[in-house]
Amino acid sequence: MKLTVLGYLGGFPDHGDGTSSYLIESAGFKLLVDCGSGALLSLEQVVDPLSLDAVLLTHYHNDHIADVGVLQYYWQLHPERPNKDVLPIYGHTLDQEHFNSLDWPNSTQKVAYDPSGVLDLGPFSITFSKTEHPVPAFATRIVEKATGKVLVFTADTRYFEDITGFCQDADLLMTDTNFFADKQGQKWHMTSAESGKLARDAKVKSLLMTHLPAKGDMNQLIYEAQRELPENVPVEVASTHLEIEI
Ligand SMILES: [Zn+2]
Ligand SMILES: [Zn+2]
Q: DSSP assignment, residue 156?
């Protein structure tokens, strides 16, 4: 499967770069995971937005859903649909108001995922794990059925030990790394060092830090995560239109 980062910042867009949104492709199937600020503009530069097969939302914070509304208008105002008549948007139902807003006439259809079950979606088999965040949010483990390759996305979460098992042996672990290692006080996201520790304990094959701070030295962020890890585990930071073959 192929991952293309569409937006990677936490909280707000900055100088042309958007917030959380990722395109995951396999066998022609196009899954959009989260749809933050700037996602539609970024997506348009990579694929036809009408060629999407599904959208999956980890939670309903604005930096993950800001562009859902304009994506709905985009589909509504383009009657030609190469793939399907209506775009399904998968979300959790622990916030009914946001979940219901995923329906839009002649455009998108809300679909509930069961966080305790397995979501069979095209070439992917997807499971979920609740994170520790101010609103209900779900980490996603995306398995490419044909190859068994695994992408785990922590969604938004503070570090907690119990998430380790869910990330176990992933080919690529994508972590919410909004803070440098020296961040003190209340945290609802992980630091670089916590991302590195999680990757080490879960024995993943590679780490991609995302949901990044808009300011600071990204080499420092990589250094802080890498020093927690064996040297043969590669660490990267996300950037707009970064592509990774998993
Ligand atoms: Zn966020
Ligand atoms: Zn959040």
A: S
